[in-house]
Structures are given as C-alpha cells and as structure tokens.
Design brief:
Elements (H helix, E strand, L loop, with lengths): L10 E9 L2 E8 L7 E10 L4 H5 L17 E9 L11 E4 L2 E2 L5 H4 L17 E2 L11 E5 L3 E3 L6 H4 L2 H14 L6 E5 L3 H12 L4 E6 L3 H8 L4 E4 L5 H8 L5 E6 L6 H8 E9 L12 H6 L3 E4 L7 H9 L9 E5 L4 H9 L7 E5 L3
Parallel strand pairs: 10-11, 10-13, 11-12, 13-14, 14-15, 16-17
Antiparallel strand pairs: 1-2, 3-4, 3-8, 3-17, 4-5, 5-9, 6-7
Helix pairs in contact: 4-5, 4-10
The chain binds zinc ion (2 copies).
Length: 361
C-alpha cells in the first residue's frame, strides 16, 4: 500500500542537538538525496536506550559534531529517489537500518557491515544514522537505499520502529545458535529482552526464564511468553534459576540489561558448555567477571553489536505472529513534545517501556 505524499518543502522541522544535553526544535533545510540515497518521510521514531547517551554526549564521537539530528529506530515512506536508485517507489512504506557499511572493506564483504573498517568515514560511503550521520528526529531523512526494507501493510509505523530492537536480539541469538528444545534465560525485561524471550521461543527454545526486578516489565515478560520469573533483587536469583533447571543451569542466556551483576549472573546461571549472549550496552567503568567459571564451565560468550542482516527475518516473525512488538510500546508523543517523551523514557514514568515519536498529520 502506498499513499500520496505532499511534496516536501524547502525546510522541515527537526530536533536539533546543539551541545551535550541541549536541543530544540528548529526549521532546517530539507535534505536532498545523493546518488544511491532516498529521501524518506519519517512517520515514527522510537527512543532507543542509546539515544540519551548520544543526547548527553556520553560516548566520544557520538555525535561527531554539532548541530546534529539523532534518531535511528524509524519507519516511514519513500518520497524521492536519488540518482541510480531502483526498486523503490514514492509512497512505499519502509523501515530503515541504522548501519550502512562502505560495502568494500573486509568486514562489509563478510556481512559484518555493523563493524565496517571505514566506520565514521562518510567519504567511504559509511553511514551510522543517528550516531555519525543525520538521523530521524525530523520530518524527513536521507538514507541509503541499501539500508531500507519494505514494511508490510499489517505492521504499523510505530510498531515498525521496533524492528531494530528485535533485530539486535535476533542477531545475538543467531550468532550463538539456539538448540532445539533449549532452556533459555533473559536478564532484563526491557524492549530487547522482551523480544529475546519471544525469539528464543520462535527459534526453538521450549522454556524461557526471565530475570528482572519485580514490576510491570517482569509481568509483561510473563504475558509475552516467559515461563518463569525470577526477581533479581531477592539475593537468591542464582539459586532460583539453578533450582528451576534441576541444578544444571540454562542452555543459553541473554544479558540485555547492562546490569552491574548481569554478566556474572549469566555465567553462574548457564550450564556447563552453555552459551552467553551479551547485548547490554555497557559503558565504562569496566566490570570484572568470574573468569575461572568461564574457563572451567567451558562457556561461549558472544558480544553483540547492533542488528545487521536481521530486518527481513524479524519482519517475517512479526507477520507470522511469532513476535509481538505492539505491546512493548507504552507511550506515543509528537516531535514537538520530545523533551517530555525523553523524560518519560529515561525516568520510566507511568511504566514507560518503548516511547515512540510519531509524525503529526
Ligand atoms: Zn537503537
Ligand atoms: Zn566497510
């Protein structure tokens, strides 16, 4: 389905970062698509856990300078094609990936464009939308045709913004591999964790335990398919998980919370020879983990960066009814209320889970 779009004006509204933790809505020039690029109307952008870090300038190089437009978990419509772009039509519904590699380095050629050797060098063709390249907190956005995926009609724009979160979980589980009838563990019932619970099941796990703080998020974990819930604050979480698995521990565990004890919990809660998927976005200071247990238990640890090669599979799981993204969206705000949206997300007001900015009109 495609709908007619108004021709974009010369200027558009955008949320512009001016310096660390200072931003305002400004009227800025509407970007023009270069060769291989597509101008898209942004219909919705979800606030990602990494956005507050970008907005506060907590990660060196994100953003590369000011003024800057952040935002990378978005869905929208094709408006205008740049030179040489084929396969897309104005009005088509799309979802975009944050990473676009240079396409010619060793990492890109082996499918690892999320770790492009030319990361941060736009002249190579590399883009990291919302981190290194202008993002989606705006009426329009220019994006490489290579980063676009068709958004099925049955998936709404707000829901479509969640494909990347699910893609991170899918990428991690695919790296590690989920064995048939596995017992899985997810630490952290946030957006990625709740996707991981559903994907573990969809990929063959028959039982999933979720560890988190008692409250709305842990209840949501139950609603979307977790079989057992363990309160991380009881002081006996490790013992509880071992009890639930006959003393063995789980086959595969997924840490999504970047919790202080998260990796250590995963190491203690996973069986001999098991797998640990590390997704949580840790920022320094570095944590220590029980290395002797990693070695003696012969554990495999998988670091997971972003969501490469995952969008079409995630969309298939959603269309097939194996992965529900809609329940994870707790709030929707217009762009002009971004400050309130950010506060709601960061401070988890009113049980905030995924907070989405939706275009008006
Ligand atoms: Zn994100
Ligand atoms: Zn590359």
């Amino acid at each position: 389905m495609s709908s007619t779009l108004a021709k974009p004006g010369k200027t558009m509204q955008a949320l512009v970062l001016l310096e660390p933790h200072r931003f305002e809505i400004q009227e800025v020039p509407t970007p023009q698509p270069g060769p291989g690029e597509v101008l898209c109307r942004v219909r919705a952008t979800a606030i990602c856990g990494s956005d507050p870090k970008v907005i506060d300038g907590k990660i060196p190089g994100w953003p590369p300078g000011y003024p800057f437009i952040a935002g990378h978990e978005w869905a929208g419509q094709v408006v205008q094609l740049g030179e040489g772009v084929t396969g897309w039509k104005p009005g088509e519904r799309v979802v975009g990936e944050p990473h676009k590699g240079c396409g010619s380095c060793r990492q890109c050629l082996t499918g690892n464009y999320n770790m492009c050797d030319n990361y941060g060098f736009p002249e190579s063709g590399h883009r990291h939308y919302g981190f290194k390249s202008q993002g989606s907190y705006a009426d329009y956005m220019v994006v490489s045709a290579k980063a676009l995926h068709s958004l099925p009609d049955s998936i709404g724009y707000a829901e479509g913004t969640m494909v990347g979160s699910a893609g991170v979980a899918l990428h991690g589980l695919r790296l590690a591999g989920v064995e048939p009838a596995a017992t899985g563990l997810v630490i952290g019932p946030g957006a990625i964790g709740l996707c991981a619970i559903q994907l573990l099941k969809a990929m063959g796990a028959t039982r999933v335990i979720c560890v988190g703080r008692t409250g709305a998020r842990l209840n949501m974990a139950r609603e979307i398919g977790a079989d057992d819930l363990v309160d991380s604050l009881t002081g006996t979480a490790v013992e509880q998980v071992l009890d639930l698995t006959g003393g063995r521990g789980v086959d595969i565990s997924v840490e999504t919370a970047a919790a202080e004890e998260g990796p250590t919990y995963a190491i203690k809660m996973t069986r001999l020879g098991g797998k640990i998927v590390l997704i949580g976005f840790f920022i320094p200071p570095e944590r220590t983990i029980p290395m002797q247990a990693v070695v003696f238990k012969q554990l495999s640890l998988y670091g997971v960066k972003a969501d490469p090669n995952s969008y079409d599979q995630v969309l298939s799981f959603v269309v097939a009814g194996k992965l529900a993204l809609k329940p994870l969206i707790s709030h929707v705000f217009p762009l002009r209320e971004f400050a309130k949206a950010l506060d709601t997300f960061v401070n988890r007001r009113e049980g905030a889970m995924k907070v989405v900015i939706e275009a008006e009109g």
